[in-house]
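Lab notebook, bench 4. The sequencing result for the construct came back, and we need a structural model before the next group meeting so we can plan mutations. Quick request posted to the team channel:

Model the 3D structure of this chain.
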Amino acid sequence: MSNFQHPGDEMILPEPLKSEVENYIKRDFDNKKAGMVGYIGGLPTVGAQDRGLPGLGNVLVQLRRAAEEAGADIRWNEAAREVIIEYRGHRLQFRVGEMAAWMDGRQVDLPHPPELRDGRMMVPQRILEQFLAR
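Done. Here's the predicted structure in C-alpha cell form:
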C-alpha cells in the first residue's frame, strides 16, 4: 500500500539527527517543509532515502503499521516489553530500549534502541525494511 504524507509525518528522529534533517531539507528542498513525500507501507520511498540523508538507519518508524501493511503477524509481550514479528517463515524480535534485535535467532546491532511513543513501538527503519524485504 502506498500513500503520500507531508515531510516528517511518518518519520520520528532521535535528537542527534534533528539538525541533520534540517540541513537535508534546506539543501535538497530549498528549506520547504511543506510538500509531498512518497511512502510505501509507512516507510519513505527508496528514492527519498537515496538522496543522502546521513544516519538514515537512525530514523524510527511505527513498527505495527509498516509490518501489518506488509502482511506480517505481530505479537506484543508486555512482561518482556518485546514485540515479535513473523513474516514469510522468518522472525524478528525487538525489546524496548535495547541496542540489539534478533532476526531468525541471530543478534543484529541497532543504531538506536526501539522506543514506545504514545503506545506505539518505534523501531529503526533500516532493520525493519531489511526484514520485510525477504
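Confidence is low (pLDDT under 50) at residues 1-10, 34-54.
Will bring this to the meeting.
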